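Quick one:
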Amino acid sequence: MPNIRWLIGLITKVHRFVYLATGGWIGGGFLGMEFLLLHHRGRKSGRIFITPLLCIETETGFAVAGSNGGDVRFPAWWRNLQADPRVRVQHRRRHLAAVARKAEGAERKLLWERLMASYPFFDRYAEKAGREIPVVVLQVSEA
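Output:
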């Protein structure tokens, strides 16, 4: 299979640009998929990165999967959250402060099932990656 990471990177940049430029009017949802923008601090550089991610809403915020498109490596944003779990989330037009944490045990199982119901391709990503995909809870701390 050809390496298309450059194409995925381009799509991500365009998606982020449109989401930000329209204030969330465009980019928050597409074909039944929900996206948020995760604003997180780089663990090495200290600069703020903005990453569009598929998400599901939970009672206390959101859950996302660190699938990295099925890559064997964890996504950079997940490594950044392990260093600094304080984030900002934009979901459509809402801007929220949140704290990230890895779901474990029964909570992970439940959220993984909900993520799979919305995005069944995550199962293929997990198989391809050969690692457990982290389910990350973004617990909203303020509006």
